[in-house]
Every structure is written in structure tokens, then in C-alpha cells.
Amino acid sequence: MSVFIIAEAGVNHNGDINLAKKLIDVAVEAGVDSVKFQTWKTELLVTRDAKQAEYQTENTQIEESQFDMLKKLELSYDDFSELKQYCDESKIMFLSTPDEIPSANFLVNLQDIFKIGSGELTNLPYLRHIGSLGKKIIISSGMCTLKEIEDALNVLVKAGTKKDDITVLHANTQYPTPMEDVNLNAMITIKNKLGVKVGYSDHTLGIEVDIAAVAMGASIVEKHFTIDKAKEGPDHKASLEPEELRAMVIAIRNVEKALGDGIKIPSGSEKPNIVVARKSILANQKIKKGDTLTEENIIVKRPGNGISPMK
């Protein structure tokens, strides 16, 4: 089964539906499986005096409340209906993360998979609601302990979602994430300790950690992307530009091929080289009938079309 690659447009449309459509075009061109946005009503999501995250202030260079920042980035439900139609026409899967319950209810008829952001992993009423919708669920685990992930899984399962329909993405909620904080081995810990499918939601600069995650068994990879890293907004600087996104997809697909089936036998491409590279037992001098073969009168040389030296 191929790795499911999500191109995270997030809020990189800057509140402009036309820019959102351009992001969909980029995702299609890159060859990802899905393009994902975020859906919310600012009044239901955040208080008016909630402060920005430090990275948001640094990335935007604007001192303002979360409320004011998010209000500028908010798209309407009608916008998302239009983006869903545009994705269908472009033959790419539309996804959007609901950041509160009314937005989840809006999205329920637009998508078969629900992505839960890291910030909602401890939101009990939200988890109960998402778990009751009968959808496949992808849940990010930034800022979380293993126990918090386990508790969230229990809530989702108790609400009606099968555990087999849930994938947990290891993540770090810093934009960009320092390499020393990635802790990619924690993805394996989540898989082994909680018995759940795993993937990786990446906020590092570059694509090498995404490729490593695939090599380590990630079934889903999610990565932020943008038209231009220089654009104004909180997430652009930690996102891939179009050519980088395409390079990531190519690399992941190559790693998938390289992983193979795990059976150690000669491959089709290397079989012709067996005779050329291996060796056979040859006479090193004239040997008479009845002579004993010794290290002095035989030698091992290429090609490997005779008696194997293992004999």
C-alpha cells in the first residue's frame, strides 16, 4: 500500500480563495494524494485577547492577537464548498481540518477522512464528536505525551470509531521544527506501544525527515506547502515551495520502491551479474587423474560458471 501524501495548504491561502485554488493546482502538479486546508469560525475558536504563538509573531512580524490574525485568514463555508468542487474537478482528494464542532458538522458531507490537529488532542467534547461521525481519522500528536495519545484514542474508539480506522501522526508543533527536536523514533514508539497505524506530520525545513519517516514505516506523510515562502503569513516560512514539494513526492515514491518486499533473493536486475562477479574453482597447474586437490594445485577465479568455491 502506497504512502498517503497530504499537501498541507493550511492557512497559506491568506484568506484568498483564488490563492487557495492555485495551491490546489500546485498539489496536483506535485502528484500528492490529497490537499488539506483548515476550517474554522474565529469567534468559536479563540478568545479575542488570546496571544499569538511566538513563531507566529516571528514569522508574520506583526504584533496582533490570535483572533485578529485568524479572522484575516478565515474562509467561509461557501468557499470550502467551492474548493471541494475544484478538487473534484482536479481529481485530487479534498481534506480540511475542522477546528471546532460546527465546522466538523459542515465538513461531514465533504470528506470521508477527518484530520484532527494536535491542538485538539486534549479536547474531550470535540474528540467525542469526531469519533461519532463514522469516518476514518488521522490525528496529529504534537505537544503530546504517549499517555495523552492513548487517552484520545480511547475516547475516539468509545465514541464509535474502530481503532483500525485511526492513524496517529507523530508531530512537533514548532514552525519550523529544529532537527534535534524531531525525535522520529517516537513514531515507532507510538506504533509499538499503542498498536496503531502511524505516520508523520512534518514542520522541519527541507524534505529529508519526511523521506526518513517513510523508510521507518510511516503510512501517511503530511507537509506544509506554499506558493512562495516570502509571502506574509504564519506558516509560509516553514513550508515547501512547489518544486520542493514535487521533489519530496518523487523521493518518497522512490523510497517506497526501494523498500521492497523484504525477501532476500537475487533481484532480476542483478541476476545476469552472478556469473560475471562470482568465482569458480579452477586448476592452477596440470592435475593428473588420482591427484589430491590442494591449495597449491587449484585456484579461485572469475567467472562463476563452474564449481562454487563454497564446495
Structure described in brief:
The chain is of the alpha/beta class.
> How widely separated are the two ends?
42 Å
Would you tell me the structural class of the helices and strands? Answer: alpha/beta
Q: How many extended strands?
A: 10
Envelope shape: elongated
What proportion of the residues form beta strands (DSSP E)? 15-25%
* Spatial ordering of strands, largest sheet: 3-2-1-8-7-6-5-4
- What is the CA-atom radius of gyration, in angstroms? 27 Å
**SSE string, helices as H and strands as E:** EHEHHHHEHEHEHEHEHEHHEE
Ranges with pLDDT <50 over ≥5 residues? Answer: none
- How much helical structure, as a percent, in the residues? 25-40%
Total helical elements: 12
Main sheet makeup: 8 strands, parallel
Explain how this protein is built.
The protein is of the alpha/beta class and 311 residues long. It has helices at residues 17-30, 42-45, 54-60, 66-73, 77-90, 101-107, 124-131, 146-159, 185-194, 208-215, 242-259, 273-277; strands at residues 4-10, 34-39, 93-98, 113-116, 136-140, 166-171, 197-202, 220-224, 280-283, 298-301. The chain has an 8-stranded parallel sheet with strand order 3-2-1-8-7-6-5-4. Strands 9-10 form a two-stranded antiparallel ribbon. Helix 1 (17-30) runs parallel beside helix 5 (77-90) and helix 10 runs parallel beside helix 11 (242-259). It is elongated, with a radius of gyration of 27 Å.
